[in-house]
Specification:
Layout lengths: L1 H30 L35 H7 L12 H25 L3 H27 L8 H18 L3 H30 L3 H30 L1
Length: 233
Amino acid sequence: MAMKRLLLIAVAASLVGACHWHSREWLAKQAAPDKSPSKVVPDTQPVVRQEGEPASKPAAAPPKLHAWSRASAAEPMGRSSFFTSDGRMIGRYLMSNDVDLSFAKIAYASAASEEVKAFALRMLTDHTQIIASIRAVASDKDITPAEDDAARDLRDLSTLQRDSLRLLTGRAFDSAYVVMELDRHQAILSMIDDVLLPRARSSEVREMLASSRPIIAAHIAHAEQLQAALDKR
């Protein structure tokens, strides 16, 4: 019996030892870092360049425009191309004065105020003289007045304005006519200063424009005074 008891004790001890060794091995495996490659997740954070690291290649700059292309792109709507001929400029200036002359004829016949009638008469006289000067220069220099988009736009706009003006009477007519004349002469003066004089090729054309400029400026001053007087009534 004693031998049998000792044999059982020895077997039990060996089993406990084996279980203890396997438990230590399992714990060691759990504690050890996993050496297998993990799934790669794309980095969504911005890359910060460290000091000394070469910078990435900069984006290509947009192509530069030539000087004449920039000037042409900056042109307001309705103006012709950057290289404007004297024929186009004379045609445009001639159209502007013809339009004003047509409005003056309507105003002289329909204005209720004597002051507005006198202003319309001045427009008839002065713009007739300017038109004669334009035609004389064109004839002398053999320049054929040409119509461009700006002149056609002006003609179409003036037709609409004339139609609306004919619907008015009395003080409403006088006020509308003076406002139109003020706006039109300011546009003509800007056209002389910004377009026609800088681009005129002929010295005779430049001289004609320069000599008519004070007349247009005087018309603006007259229209402003007339508008102020009408507003007080």
